[in-house]
Structure formats: structure tokens, C-alpha cells
Amino acid sequence: MQPADRRDRRFHRFVVMGWMLVWVVCAAAVTVDSAAAQGQPAAAQATAEDNNPRANFWRAIRRGVEGYSAVQGQETNVLIQGSGENWRMARERLLVPIVSGLLGAVLVIILLYHILHGRIPLEGGRSGRRVRRFSLNQQLVHWFAAILFVLLGLTGIVLLLGRSVLIPLMGKDAFAVSASLSKEVHNLFGPIFILAVLLMLFSYIRGNGFSRIDWLWLKRAGGLFGKGHVAAGKYNMGQKLWFWSVVLIGTVLCGSGLVLDFAVVGQERWIMQLAQISHVVGAVVLMVAGIGHAYIGSVGMEGALEAMTQGEVDANWAKEHHSLWYEQIEAGEGNPAEGTKAPQAGSAPAAGAATSGR
Amino acid sequence: MTFLEFTEGPMWRFAAFVFLLGVFWHLAHWLMRRHPKDLSKPLGSGFAGAVGTLFRHFLPSPHFLSRNWLVTFAGYAFHLGLFALVLFFGPHIEFIQTHITGFGWEPMPYWGFIVACQLAFAGLLILWLKRVLDPVLRLISDSGDQVGTLLTFIVMLTGCMALMQSYDFLRALHMLTVNLWLIYFPFSRLMHAFTWVLSRAETGAVYGRRGSSL
Amino acid sequence: MSARNTIDRLMERTNPAIASYLDACVHCGLCAAACHFYETSGDPRHTPAYKLKPLEKAYKRHKAPFSNLRKAFGLAPPEVSDGELREWQELIYDTCTMCGRCTLACPMGIDIAGTIGVMRTAMFEGGFTPSDLVEQAQRAKDVGSPLGVTPELLAERLEWIADEFETEVPLDKTGAEVMLTASSIEVMKYTESIGSMAKIFNHAGVNWTFSSKGYEATNFGVLSGNGDVNRTMVTRLVDAAEELQVKLVVIPECGHALGALRWTGPNVIGRELPFEVLHISEYLAKLKRDGRLKLKSYGKPMTYHDPCQVSRRGGATKAARELLNGFAQDFRESKHAGTANWCCGGGGGVISISDPKTVDGRLKAFKIKMDQVDDTEADVVVSACSNCRLALDDGAKHYAWGREITNLAEVVAEQLEE
């Protein structure tokens, strides 16, 4: 067996194990407390009547019956929202463990992958010729969104997982401060993220439509399966899926975030709860995928990061990973999906059509 | 003495002192220098030119807007947002009333605060990203630019963290960073908050005398 | 070459204005978009603010508020080196026309062009000036003109011009009220400019003359930074005008010559000028205003290129419009015309530098002016500066550009009603 084949097999084994780990964690979380949400009121019912004649009355309130309240306002006539307990259970028994499990799992998988497989090298080495991949404004928009995302993600994680993870570490007082500051920062930076998502949409939509070669790319998981490189245009399927996730799930995050942040337009409790769940679900999907994206765009692939820090890539990198895009450039068909104009730094002298137009 | 009492007390007084003395010394440096007398016969008024340039440069020149729009809008967003926050945010007015002026004024409504905050942060972030990504700005920037930006951002961030003033520690942290910012201010390019008057007026005066408006 | 001399001179000349500029620059980079060199080269080193770096460093080290404190803590910038100044020569001379457009974009209103002028005097002291400019400045002092036009040659050429253009061209006429000056390039190449000015003055009945003691309007002392030559050229003009007891000295179609005599001249020689100074465009506008010009209207579609030192930095933007409006039937203003007009790329001595790299950069920058004029679809582009004209002609030759290039005085002279 070739060393490359052996490495591939070992890698596949770990990927499979990793996914199994994820599913196990999720399954455990779900099964453990599935009985918790039900049951108690029924068991208590039989003896309740003997001890407390008003038990039925309070049971009805507990289930969310509407009554009269002297205080007029949003849902003030509902003392206890019955389904709220379900939401609380879902948040504590499902979301918290699943999110922590997923985040932990993705970090572990990537770490293992990197240790075993190593960085994806530039097989042809660097050619020294540069190709412009992103305009200055595209770079700016990307890092704007990224920084906001990290800030919101970290503060969001404190808000969701802080109680279980941080209190044991720092104690209740310190956690109270951390949670407070996280909430303020999260709520203030959240609306700016709306701008970031819009800017991402307009800056990157060109080139992110789907075509047949994308499905072929997906079938081979970008080259993970099978031998040799896979053809791709300016953006491969992985990137396209990531772009549309950011835009669509980002929209969900923004929408649910606005519902949660500005609870002054008559939202009822159930809307807030639904918003919270969709916010967390959307966030964890983007965070997991985002960690993968950040990895492959930096440490995981040689020659990738400079695309976003300098706007240019080595011609060999373009040839290897985005062959169809590179061919278009060589054929002089401009620089597809370049987007906005930007002043170009004097690039290394280019033979051929590796260009730095406006 | 608690951390909060320290940062709002002796450290604040020290920082304010350094700030005032530093700004005064910086400006006095310019005032003390003698302006060489201009012996040319003026075609227009230097004073009018100075005032004209002073206010004209508040607005972006339409000739370069198509190239400079991003920095222009982000710059306005940041400066106007920060100005509104510093002077019209309730807790700030209270602080100014207690520690500086003895009188306050009407704070802006909550939604105004939110808008100002978004603008200030978005503007600063975009400007900083432009500074680290654009080859022109990479070349002309130095460590002073980075420190000034970082300090300002940290002041704003700690301010955010201390909202609702629920925790003394966070409030004190914000005050600590404000004090550091005040101490750093006179020795840095943050002084542009005052020097814009001098440079615009100088140019305006020279070209106003020539009958040109720059 | 000595960086020490440059630094000393820089600190000497750092007046309150320059100090305020160096304190005020926030490194925002907005000036880049205003600069024709940066816009066409894309080289970040051509950013106007970057040109001031050595001065900024020296200032922060020696003269800025708290510079001693900085030095004490080891936070002052290192001393500017010979190598740096050699590197900066290209930025201060070859790729800067001191056009001043950057000031319009600067939110702090920094007069970068004026500061570059000061830097040039310091660069000259240190020996960091391009040889072309050094030589022309020295020749101007030794012989009377950067192109070697001696008083004798001047007399010959003026005689020839008088013949060729069939008009009187007085030299050293006593009792004259107006003294006209010339730039050498007009004496030698663009003689139609002098011929035209002569015709117009005679038509308007102006009592004028040239002086063989003070005729050279260009000032390569200003362009190179040679303070001694600067002073000499201004003194010659002032002495000649005083001897003739004229009330007015007219600067010909030249850009920097206006500022060299009217604006910086008095400060260079340390006294006020006892006469008025007008650019030829201003004087022609005055003559028209006073009803002394009988003109046929000019029919060809034309546009005006504002010489930077005449319009933006000289204060004579309106004069050209006063002259052309009503006279030129189809006068089309280009985009950005007036105070914000694009530079032709030839001013500030750049046209005089023969280094192929500099010529290349200048021709590239010229494309902006070409596009600007082409957009107006005018047949003719009129300027009021012979350096601009040289740059326009040179660019037209290089790009096979078909527009007619002419100067203000010519256009007016051609339409004089006999």
C-alpha cells in the first residue's frame, strides 16, 4: 500500500469515528431527559386533590390558562406560559449539550485531521506569479463580517453555555460580570451584523451560482475521495454552500436576533422562544461550518490565506484548486466575479495574463 | 478605596490633568512660534480664507467621492456616532455634570443611542480594516495609528460592556481605559481632534490671501 | 550628499504652518485619489502624504511638541538617513508637480504642495536634487535663463518675433507702465505666445516693454529648491521693474512664475513689491473688462486646462473664464474644471527631467488629462502655461492625440479685430 493510500485510509477512519462521536453525544443528550418534560403533573394529580382543593385551579394556571390581570400589557393575562417549560427544557437539555458537543467535536476533528493529514500543500510549489482574486472592498467586507461573527459568537457562547462551563471555572460573581458584559456586547454588535450580511451578499454573489461541476466537486468531496484535484470555478461547491449558508442562515440570525434584541414591538413569549431556538440553531451551524472555513482558509491549505489578506494568490494555487477560473484568466476573459474597483499595489512582474486590472 | 472610586477619583483627576496640560502644551507650541510676516500683496482675505477652509473641509470634496466614498462614509459614521455617544448619552452627561461642568443637558433617546453606537463601531471597524488591508494605508501607517485605534476601540468596547451600569467592575474598567486614553491623547495623533483647526486655518489663510479657496 | 544639511534646513524652515500640517496628518490616505501620479501608477509610494515622511520623522525627532520627551524614552523616530533621502528624491521631484490637488482631498486641509516646496529647498542643501534641475537653475543664474537665453539672444529673438508677427515688441523702453516677462521656452519655441501677447497689448494701446535686465519669468530656484537662484531670479525682475518704474509686471503664460514673483517673491527678497503683478490671463481679462479688446468670437469647440499654479495655487481661476465666456462661442468646461482640475503632469519641473523612468511616469499620468479633454469632445484645448503646453504637446505626440493644443494669448490674438 502506498504511504498516501495508508494516510488516506487512516484519515477516513478518523472522520468516521468523529462523526460517530458527534451522533453519540447528540443521541445521549436527547434520550436522557425525554421523559423530563412530561409526567409530573399526572403523577401528582391523584393525591393533589386531597391536600389542596385549589389544585385544579393552579394546574390550569400552570398550563397557561388566560385570566384577568389588573396590570394591562403584553400577555399580562397569562400568569404562566405552559409551553415555556418545554422551551426551557429544550434549551437546557438539548441546545446546551448539543451545541457544546458539536463545537467540541468540530475542534477535535479538525485538530486530529491536521495532526494526521497535515496542511494541504501547494503541489507545484509557488510560481511567483500572482493572480488577483479579491478586490480590496471584498477583503474588507469579509474581515468586517468575520470579526463581528467572532465577537458575536464568543459572547453568544458565554450567554448559552456560560452557566454550565464558566461558573465551575470562575465562580458565580465573576460569571455574572462576564454574562452581563457578553449580553451588552452581543446585543450592541448584533445589528451591525445585519450590515455585514448585506455587504457579504452584494460583494460575493457574483460567481456563487451553482452548476454541474459543483455537484461533481461535491461527489468527490473536493478531492478527499478519489485521486487528483477536482475542477472548480472561482468558487468551489464547498465555498458556494458556505456563502449561501452565511447569507440565508445569517438572515435567520439577523431576523431572530432583532426579535430578541428589541422586544418592544409586541412579541409574545412563544415568538421570543422560537426566535431563541432558531438563533442558537443557526448560530451553531454557522459556527461549526465557520470553524472549518477558517481552518481551511488559513492553516489548512497552503496559499489560501493571502487571497483574503492581500487579495492575490499564487498562479499555481489558482491552477490547482480553481482550475476553470484560472483558465478563464489565462484566456484573457478578465477576472470573473472581481467585483468592485480597487487600487492595485504593484504586483510582481507577470508573464502572461495574470492581471492586476482595476 | 474601591477600584471604581479609584478610577473615577484620583486616577481620573490625574488623567484629566495630563490631558489638559498636554493639549495646552501641544497647542501652545504652535501659538508660541512666530508666523513669518507675509509680504505679498493679498488679493483676498486670509481670515475669510481660514474660516472658509475650516468649514469647507467638513464636507467631502465631490471630485474624489467616487474613489474615497468608503473612508468618507465610515469616517463620518465613526466621528458623528462617537460625538453623539460621548456628549449625549445619559450616563456620560451625568459624569460630566458631576465631575466637570456642574450642569447637564437633555440626553438622547434610547434609539438614538443604539444608532450612534452602531455607526461608531461599524465606522471604526471599517476604517481600521481599510488601514490594515489597503496597500496605501499599510505604507503610510505607523504604530501610533494602531495604538490610537486600539485604545479608542477598547474604550468603546468597555463602555458597551458596562451598559446598564449593573456592575461596578465593568464601569471601573471603562473608566480605567478612558483614563489611559486621556493620558495617551496629547502625545499621539489623537490630537487631530484639535490640530484640524490649525492646519485647515493655515492653509485657508495662505490661499485665501491668494484669492483661491482650497 | 549630506542628510545632515537637509535635516538642518528642514528644521529651520518648519514654520508654524508646516508644524501644524505634520501634527495634523492622520494617515488617512484620502490624498492618494487626488494625485495623477498615484492614480495612474497604482504605486502606494506615490501617495502624497508618504512624500512627507522624512520631514515628519525629522520633525517628530527634533521639533515636535514632546520630541525631547520622546527622545528620552527612546521613542523618537531614528534620524533620517542619506539612503532615505536618495530614495525620496524621486517622490519629491520626479513624481510630484506640486499641483496642490491633494490639499482638496485632505480632511485636515494640509498644504502638501507647499510643504514639498520647502522640502525641495532642504533636499537641495543636502545635494539630493535631480541634476537636470540643478543645472537649469545654475544656468538661469549664470546666464539669465535656464535654456541659455542671454540678454543678447533675447534681443535677437524679440526682433525676429516682431518681424514674424508684424507687431512692435519694445525692449528697455523708458516710460513704460507695464513690464512683460517671458519664459525661455516661449522665447525659443512657443514664440507665438510672445507674438500674441505683443499684438494684444499693442491693440489695446498698452504702454509696455520687455527689459533686458529682468526678463526670465521662470524660476528654477523654486523648482529645484536652490534658494540662492530663487532670490537671484526674483531680484532681477524686481530691480528691472523698479528701474523702469513700471506700475505692473505681467507674468507670461507660465504657471509657477506667477507664484514665484507674486506670492513667494516678496518673502524671498524680504520686501514688498512696489508694483502690481498679474498673470497674463488676469491682465487679458482686465483689458476685456475695461473694453480695450475688440474681439471676434471664437467658434471652435474648446475647453480650458487650468494650470495648477495659476488657478488652484495662484488665485486666477476666474480670470480665464471671464476672458473666455462670451468670447468663445462653444466653451466647454471639463469635469473637475476650475480649482479641482487635474494636473497635466508636466509642472513643478517634472517636464525638465529627462530620466526615462520619469518621462514614462509623466506620460502615464497624462492619460488622465487626455481622457478628461476627450470627454468634452472639444476640438481645441487651451492652456495658459507653456510648461503645460509642453506636457500637452509631448503627450499628444506620444499618444498620437488629435486635439489642437494652443494657448490663451494665441487664441485671443487670432480673434483681434483690426
What keyword list fits this structure?
heterotrimer; A: 358 residues; mainly alpha; two-stranded antiparallel sheet; 11 helices; disordered C terminus; B: 214 residues; Fumarate Reductase Cytochrome B subunit; 0% strand; globular
Give structural notes.
- The complex is a heterotrimer of chains A (358), B (214) and C (418).
- With 358 residues, chain A is mostly helical.
- Helix content of chain A is 65%, strand content 2%.
- The model of chain A is unreliable at 33-40 and 337-358 (pLDDT under 50).
- Chain B has one domain (3-12, 46-208): Fumarate Reductase Cytochrome B subunit (Up-down Bundle), CATH 1.20.950.
- In chain B, helix 2 runs parallel beside helix 9 and helix 8 packs antiparallel against helix 9 (168-184).
- Chain B has helices at residues 3-8, 10-32, 46-56, 65-88, 90-101, 110-133, 135-140, 143-161, 168-184, 192-209.
- Chain B is 75% helix and 0% strand.
- Chain B starts with a helix and ends in a 5-residue tail after the last helix.
- Chain C has 3 domains: 3-129, Fumarate Reductase Iron-sulfur Protein, Chain B, domain 2 (Orthogonal Bundle), CATH 1.10.1060; 133-287, Rossmann fold; 295-414, Rossmann fold (3-Layer(aba) Sandwich), CATH 3.40.50.
- In chain C, helix 1 (3-12) crosses helix 9.
- The mean pLDDT of chain C is 95.
- Poorly predicted parts of chain B: none
Order of helices and strands of chain B, N to C? HHHHHHHHHH
CA(first)-CA(last) distance of chain B: 54 Å
Distance between the termini of chain A: 50 Å
CATH-derived architecture of chain B: Up-down Bundle
What is the total tally of β strands of chain A? 2
Q: Which shape of chain B, going by the Cα principal axes?
A: globular
Number of domains of chain B: 1
Mean pLDDT of chain B: 94
Number of helices of chain B: 10
Gross morphology of chain A:
elongated
Strand content of chain B: under 5%
Radius of gyration of chain B (Å): 20 Å
CATH class of chain B: Mainly Alpha
Structural class category of chain A: mainly alpha
As an assembly, this protein is: heterotrimer
The chain-level structural class of chain B is: mainly alpha
According to DSSP, the number of beta strands of chain B is 0
